[in-house]
Protein 1
Amino acid sequence: MRHVAEENDPLSEPVFLILTSLAEEPRHGYALIKDIEALSAGRVRLSTGTLYGALRRLLDARWIERYTTEDTSRDKQSYRLTKAGRTVLGADLERLRTLTRAATSRLKAKEA
Amino acid sequence: MLKIFDLLMHLYPAPFRAEFETEMRAVFAAQMSDRTPWIEFLALIHGAARERLFTTTTLRTAVSLGGGVACAFSTQALLYRALLHVLVIGLFAGVAGAQPLPKQDPATLETAKSIYQKAFTALRDAKTMDDMRKIGDSLDAPEWISVDRFGRTLLTRSQADRELESMLALPPEQRASTMDIIWAEHDQTRMIVVAWMFPREEVRTGMDADPKINHRLSRATLIRDIFESTANGWRRIRHEKFLPNGTVLAIDGKSIAERNRVTPAQ
């Protein structure tokens, strides 16, 4: 499972889902797990170990950053998407759109 | 469980622990209500192995657990994978006898019981065709189907509605069924209910050489209902019946299936 890759490489599903979740609003760890579960219709349930391994790498890459709110405490740290993270997510979305278009047109051609 | 978590956290590199341990502990504790802890523990071991072996590599070192390793870190990654497999196999061997029992979520069970109880009660109390149609609407989606044990469609929703209407001719006490729910579970969009339907016990003679010996037979059929979440609540989309009606499950409390147990050849 690829957690964080080159900017031009496809994102792994956990990274894609973490970035997507944070694209909406800053979230702390547990809120991320719950939101990702909802985003993926219950299919992806990140474990604590997987989530924080990915968060560490995303922080290192500066695709996300810590976000301090009034109720921030040591056990409830929020994270938010950076401009670089938004760019990476946008690029991966574009890649998926291109693939989807190609797959759709081939399926239609086959059906026709 | 938190003590085991604290122990496993020592597998992580110290800088990682210093940065995330408090947060991870809080998230782990919050997850305990709806997760199997062993899966969390395995993920912690996996995460610790990865952090230990890749702490010094750059971010752009792309690693795939399933597909191998990219670029110049292949030796390190192979070591990582080997270590991970040893850890996982060891842990599985160690805890195989201590797997937690599957946990029925009481809230889902109550939801399922309430859906069926409401339907059975309404079925018993129905007086008009309209009452019967309302039962169908409140329980089943328009695309509902019933399938037999071969997966063949037995009934569609419109056929079932006609059957419901014909039940008005029956005395109220004969309309409703009983069921013993074995398991109810839901995710974001679906709920499944597995149950013994029409459970009953009867005493039968004539099953042995001595015709006077009585035996207690437990009979039922096994069903699975699949519900889908809608704006109006859960609606059943599929009813599957896996056994013929009145299948004998146990004789004198001893499971019939035990006679048919399959094991590797000696």
Protein 2
Amino acid sequence: MNSFVNKIISSLAISASFVFASINAEMEGLEVVSRDDGTFLIGSPTFYFDRTLGAGGIHSESELWTPRKLRYRLLFDRMSVLPSWDPIETPSVWMKSGNELGDLIYYDILTNPKERPINRTPILEGGFRTPIFHGLWATFRLFQDDYYCFRSAYGVRQKQVDGYFSFFGENWPMFSSAYGGLGFTNDFIDASVLVGMEYMWLFTESSRWIPVQFKPRVEARADFGNFSTTLVYENAEYQNKRKKETGERTEVNGSIIYKCGESCRRGMLQLSAGLAFRFVGDDGVVYTGLNNDRVLWPFLEMNVRPQEHLKFDVMFGINDRDWLVQDSVEYNIPVLEKMNVSVGAKNISGTRLNPIADTHEFFDGDTISLTAAGHMDLLQGYVRFEDSLTSFLGFGLRGSFWTEYGAETFDTEEFVDDQIYTFRHGDVSRINSWIKGVTGEFWLKLWLKDVFNFTALTGFERIDGEEKRFEVNPSEFFVQFNADWLIKKMFRISHSIRYRSDAQWNLRSRDPFVVKGDWFWDATFEQRFPKWGISLTGTIIQALGKEVIEAPNGEYSRVRFVCTAKKAF
Amino acid sequence: MKKIITLLALSLVSLLHAEDSLAFRNDSAAVKDDISFSHFAVFLEGGEIYPMGDLMDAVENALYGGIGVRYSYWENVDGVVMFQYTYFKPAIDVYIDGVHQFMGRVGVDWKWNPIHPVVLGGGFTCSWTHADSEAQKWSEPGGTLTDNETEFGWYARISLPVFKYQKYSLGFNVMWEHLWTLPKSSNMLSAGITLERSIW
């Protein structure tokens, strides 16, 4: 390996390990809770705004479709890891339990019932995956997150549905999921079929929480040769008990992708091509709609490495309704090799950030269009520099400038109050003027073999434009200090302390909804037993910060503790 | 030098950010050094719990009992897992007769040579409570306890083995427990006797 490649790999590897400390996420897909290197505002596990500072544009990452997210879940118009139906790959058994801190226990005997703090709620998960037997394996998983749920549980959401709306308990969690299935894995194929049921509350453009029960949901996957295929069947039941409305959606969706093989990956040009699709059949009141009841989304990916220092990546998708291009170029400047300087540019253009999502939402006689005429263009240029001064100290910086025309936003025509919520009428539209942003990040790292690492990371962003009709004004500044210790290869302590400045939601309430800046502290303690393949962890999440609601119509983000036990077979 | 940095960086990534959170079991050096479970013991424990601070006005002192396991983790450090049960009676007149409380604790005991044979311990604790009551009067004091209430916290303890005979040992321990409850944290002190039998 030559020194230049070495440098790049070491820079990437080190930065990957330092961007955020190894805080255990409370659930797959909720890593965003412990991130503040940008704007990460959580309304519930099923709805959040997640935008890394310096990403460019005013959209959040989950709003954007990319081929990487083919097996993510489509939650209304966002691509989400949670609730993940990726089978856990390690043959193991695991259990997770936790609670938001602040139940009364014996203080309830001393407290006036009218002055009780609001109830704190738990998290729950259990599952297993068997070892492979003649290529066959089985898995089961039950998981639900009762955090971010109690404010609206009894007064509002309970009245929307018949009976209990979760597998376990009475807290009305925003999702509750269970699946089981079989798989077959050998040298040629990795295939699985999972069958399950799921309760979920989806957040829509009108700002409503819509209960959906997937009964059943079936997901089949097969990876063979250079192909990855996914086929999903969902029977989704919709209801609103208050309005005596019911509906049902039968959906078949999935994807097939051809990925560049081993030999082509070593070449100058790498090509991948695929197709994502959805077919839906709606009956009764379903609250959202898809034009022609189907979407077919063919796409092409191309990575070109014309020389050692230069790389181009392009993704292009098109169908009868939409087109989307995402491309980037990066050049590591050879004359500045010792300083490891790279310059790059990225572009996103398209008629829609998520071309596979539904096209309409139906709200009290109104049809909210989820597509806007025209298209958006985002251009970003950046300079990045990273180096290690010694074998235990490194630092880097990245500066970027971006500009976006036609950014997706929402034209709010009317607000409607309903109990604790404010809903909105209007349509998805565009900001047809240029928005400009400038960003800067700086990081400093210290590490000692595989025992300790520390990083201090800070960033700022300034956004300007003629029309500031952003759904979210991102946070402008953050600073964070992360550290991981691994003692005798068996005991891990990871912690992250960070500050994020104010962020602000617009367009979803009459007055701007400000999420005040705050400090947060997270920590994970893990006992490892390498010989036995056992891990015991305890994680404190969102400590220090004031417990606030981070999104309109959202729920409180509270300090919580999660413990997990895992045993590999 | 860069190669070293690369290797270190990659090993950090693999150790700390592995997709497979149990990947450390594939680290042969870690497996070789792992002496965990080279000793294993079970114990019975019993004693009394004393609520502290405001909680003295809420519930009375109570007896507790439990079981646990102790296993070697490092040379001077044992891992401990405990399950205990107690029954608290209210100290004031409320409609519930009492509260069943189950406690689960995971922690470590540190056999620090300078203070031998005293052992220092600490870890996380979780209390699960359920009121002993037929009625469910949510709007009265104690009402939330008729639902299942759970809270986490930490504990610290000192143990003193005073008597050893073959595979058995008998000792005292004193524990401070801190639960992250509201409107204030809950503190309790417990003192007990432990009878331990080494299994291997």
